[in-house]
Amino acid sequence: MYSDESIQYALETTQVLLEPDRRIDTFGTTVFEFHLISELMDSINEVRIRRGNIEAARPMIVSPHAEDGLSFEGFGEQAEGFADWLRRQEGTAAFLKYGFNFKQWDIQESVVHDPIDDVRERVLKQVTDSNNPLNAVIEGVDDTWEISLLRFTVEMIQKSHGINVFDFKRRGLL
């Protein structure tokens, strides 16, 4: 399991370079295609590009046991470490009450031998040119890349929160 310091470092250094145009659907499942770039540790001009899908299942009202409201499919031990860290943070109680199921799949990775700035530019151009409103580009830490991916997902949840609450209220669910 990763230390709080490793998780904190990954969270602080992760950057969402291109955010999807869409938010997380209130009553459905949203699938984002991500491109996560990271420099290899102790290597010069070596960058790993991971590409895959991450799914955030529809928000739901959960039982009083908020910790039961998070599940991670396709993630390694980093996800549970992140969930434990998230539960210990002040101000996350409202987020956890809704419960989320995260799933990642179809992960492909490659290593390119170019400076990170060149790779960043190239990936951003490719993704932007694709015109897919569910694409994201994230720059993170190589050995804790799943933490970077989860940070992106939590940010999308937070940005979708207002819309989701409005939808719940409109249907008389809150």
Q: Helical region count?
A: 5
Averaged pLDDT: 81
Order of secondary-structure elements: HEEEEHHEHEH
* Biggest sheet statistics: 6 strands, mixed
The domain count comes to: 1
| Shape designation | globular
Q: Can you list the strand order of the major beta sheet?
A: 1-6-2-3-5-4
Number of strands: 6
Distance between the termini: 37 Å
Textual characterization of the structure:
There is one protein chain. It is globular and about 55 Å long. 26% of the residues are buried. The protein has a 6-stranded mixed sheet with strand order 1-6-2-3-5-4, sandwiched between helices. The chain has 5 helices and 6 strands. It has helices spanning 4-13, 77-88, 93-98, 116-130, 145-170; strands at 15-18, 30-39, 47-56, 70-73, 100-112, 135-139. It has 174 residues and is α/β, with parallel strands linked by helices.
Fold blueprint:
Elements: H1 4-13, E1 15-18, E2 30-39, E3 47-56, E4 70-73, H2 77-88, H3 93-98, E5 100-112, H4 116-130, E6 135-139, H5 145-170
Parallel strand pairs: 2-6, 4-5
Antiparallel strand pairs: 1-6, 2-3, 3-5
Q: Which key phrases capture this entry?
A:
single chain; 174 residues; alpha/beta; 6 strands; globular
Summarize the structure.
With 174 residues, the chain is an alpha/beta fold. It is built from five helices and six strands; from the N terminus they run αββββααβαβα. A six-stranded mixed β-sheet has the order 1-6-2-3-5-4, sandwiched between helices.
